[in-house]
Inverse folding.
């Protein structure tokens, strides 16, 4: 993993200050969705190689959730944005 992450709130910080949650493209099913939809949401994940967007939390800094776009093969970080606009867009 890249050794430095640019937090939009705290500036450039060491990667060790962050915790990865996972795929930022996964959408939570409606509460009344089928058991199969919930099973897929909780247990089924792809493991892509290449550019990928993930949720990260700046646990040793501002505590904000971020969306980090990085390459899963080279660990190069392409962008880091605040996760709040994505959460609002999805109605969370």
């Amino acid at each position: 993993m890249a050794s430095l992450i640019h937090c939009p709130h705290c500036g450039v910080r060491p990667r060790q200050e962050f915790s990865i949650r996972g795929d930022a493209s996964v959408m939570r099913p409606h509460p009344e969705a089928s058991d199969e939809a919930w099973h897929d949401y909780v247990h089924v994940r792809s493991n892509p190689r290449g550019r990928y967007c993930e949720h990260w939390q700046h646990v040793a800094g501002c505590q904000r959730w971020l969306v980090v776009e990085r390459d899963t093969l080279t660990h190069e970080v392409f962008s880091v944005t605040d996760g709040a606009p994505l959460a609002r867009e999805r109605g969370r």
Summary: The CA atoms of residues 55 and 88 lie 14 Å apart. Residues 4-89 form a domain with the Folate-binding fold fold (CATH 3.30.2270.10).
